[in-house]
Records
---
Amino acid sequence: MTYMLDTNICSYIMRQHSRSILETLENRVAEGHILCMSVIRILSYLP
């Protein structure tokens, strides 16, 4: 299974250093699951 992490979750993990979330993600990878992150940037151009 593939787990797509949004930028808010990644930011939370980096700010809070949540060991329980990191352990859960590490366990998923050890079980053969894939973790990925999607980043969408919207650029606005001034006329």
---
Amino acid sequence: MTVTARSIPSALLDQASIALLGRAARQAGRAEGPAAILGFVNAVLPFTSCLVTLLAPGRAPVLLYDDIRPERHEAVVDAYLRRAYLLDPFYDFLSGGLERRVIRLQEIQPDHFRKSEYFSTYYTDTRLVDEVGIFVPRRDESHIFVSLGRAARTAPFSVRSFQRLQSWMAVIEALLARQWDAEQFTAAAGALVTLDDTLQQSGFAALSAREREIVALILKGHSSKSIAWQLAIAVGTVKNHRKNIYRKLNITSQSALFARFLRGIGYAPVSALVSQRADSVS
């Protein structure tokens, strides 16, 4: 494709943005590359935090880069790598086969995602009000995944800035591939992990395969209606399965279901960590 002045978004023709792009092009593939590349991306789509991982379906993410403050690393990055990613809509989107390489969370989240315990616990801990994901394919069939977030104290990504990001994706993909599409970064470094395996190891072994399948969809934020559509069964059947699941696990709520999952992956919500630290001080 021929790039002309007319095809370049006018909002990026200022000298500062051009300088950032030049720096990113010079530094890509070097130690300074990640910060330089994300600096240019930030000029295109202003974000407050970013996380870059190597993703491959069925494997744990490999951390490539992040700009998360040290005091927030445990709640955001460590928790994500500790298997919270298994419930992440972006990870699910990749596992289901990519239809697009740049997408907003609101376009792929399950129907009850923002009512889910995952959202109110882990996602609230990340303090994000909006998130955009970028997927860049690599030669080994894995993907460089860039999560760009907007903090809760800020406004969500604007439609205009998201469109600007889409306009510059060819350039951004090339920069990211130059930085991380190399032999020393391999998807095989991520352990082989599935959500079903995790559930069997997290106190859900008493459930049948179908029941664990329904638990997985509940944890991800799907309603009974959405689960019925996903599994091609009746809504009433889903509700009966939910009753049996709660009975077998001796629980009475979705929050208890999620709490069992969190214990299984060794994740403590920020509120719990704060309480523990306060107790230790007192």
---
Amino acid sequence: MHPNPNKALLVLLSFVPGAGHMYLGLMRRGVSFMAGFALSIAGAGAFSMISLLQAAFIILIPLTWFVAFFDLWRYPRMGPEEKALVRDDFLIPRSLQLPGGITMRKARIVAGILLILAGVYRLYRIFLYNFIYDYLHSERVIYFFERMPTLLGGVAVIAVGLLLIFWKSRQLKREAGGYEK
């Protein structure tokens, strides 16, 4: 942890969730806050068709910002003994056991599957349905290029879902020596 942070710089960095934590040397905690903030913004935009989910993500945006802001400002007031006890860890520990005996690996697989389904739904509903309808009726190929950001967004959501499902198992196999690149 940064022993004597510049207060003016810390004030500026505190407006970006996680940036101030990174400045203090708490990289994992900073990345956790940044990822949470980015995912809440992405979720608010991705679920614009489903108003209840969108409302939940919209509420998460300021909530994440406030938690990150006030969590950051507790560190400069700590004494040297307290600073020595601070551990830089992710906000959600990898070994967390959820109710019902669900492990983080299972939760990650479920989250990955949900992201894949959300991406497929988004691709179909916003891109493919409108593209097929418009192409068959007016034969405008330019429509494809107008909808390219939506297509890429849906593909990115599916890719993140697949990554959540398969990445950790590849790492475990590689560490065990049972899997080569």
